[in-house]
Write a structure and sequence with these properties.
Layout (H helix, E strand, L loop, with lengths): L1 E7 L4 H13 L3 E3 L3 H4 L5 E9 L2 E2 L2 H7 L1 E9 L7 H9 L6 E5 L1 E2 L6 H21 L6 H12 L1 E2 L7 H13 L8
Parallel strand pairs: 1-2, 1-3, 3-5, 5-6
Antiparallel strand pairs: 3-4, 7-8
Bound molecules: flavin mononucleotide.
Length: about 180
């Protein structure tokens, strides 16, 4: 039975989603840094973590202490086909169910080195513009570049729907998880 939502958030977007989900599922949400003080080892949880350079932050540590039933990860990129498969590959997720949500950028909350990494990401995404002009970048990539340069949020409650659908199917199999939706 899933008992809690554990999350790691750097600038607040993952935390915001965790709070939304906590309300919808009537489950407590807890920052990963407090999981050991708050929960017994081995309980079943949903893990939510922001993506930093393709890696889901805090996941490995949480996996050592808790039993993770599903992972929700929050990033800035617009997902392309194969995106989830790549996340599986980079994070050794085996057969864990993984869901991706778009968060946002708050430049004022980032360290200098984090800004540098993001600037490089933006430069790479915007590279085709140098060769072929503005028409050569997709709208989705343009939005990401713009968010990286000026901050932006993609957080909305509807983004949780795919996960909620999965969660409901799980609770039909296991009636002890009773979501309050
Ligand atoms: C240093 C750095 C690296 C990042 N790498 C990725 C990445 O590889 N893929 C992605 O989709 N988003 C990436 N992002 C974007 C964050 O995952 C995104 O801003 C997310 O919403 C942050 O969530 P938080 O506010 O909970 O920390 C990166 C952000 C930073 C600062």
């Amino acid at each position: 039975m899933i008992e809690a939502i554990i999350y790691e958030s750097n600038t607040g977007f993952t935390e915001k989603y965790a709070q939304m989900l906590s309300k919808k599922l009537n489950l407590p949400s807890c920052p990963a840094g407090k999981m050991k003080k708050t929960f017994s080892p081995g309980i079943e949880v949903i893990y939510m973590g922001w993506i930093c350079d393709k890696r889901i932050r805090g996941l490995e540590k949480a996996q050592k202490y808790l039993r993770i039933e599903a992972v929700i990860t929050v990033g800035i990129l617009s997902p392309t086909p194969g995106f989830i498969a790549l996340l599986h590959q980079y994070n050794d997720l085996m057969d864990l169910p993984v869901f991706y949500l778009r968060g946002g950028i708050r430049r004022e909350k980032l360290s200098i080195s984090q800004k540098l990494i993001l600037n490089l990401m933006a430069k790479k995404l915007a590279a085709p513009v140098k060769r072929g002009g503005l028409d050569s970048i997709s709208n989705a990539d343009y939005q990401v570049v713009d968010s990286i340069l000026h901050s932006n949020s993609f957080v909305k409650e509807q983004n949780l729907e795919e996960f909620l659908f999965w969660y409901r199917t799980q609770t039909e199999v296991n009636p002890y998880n009773k979501p309050v939706i």
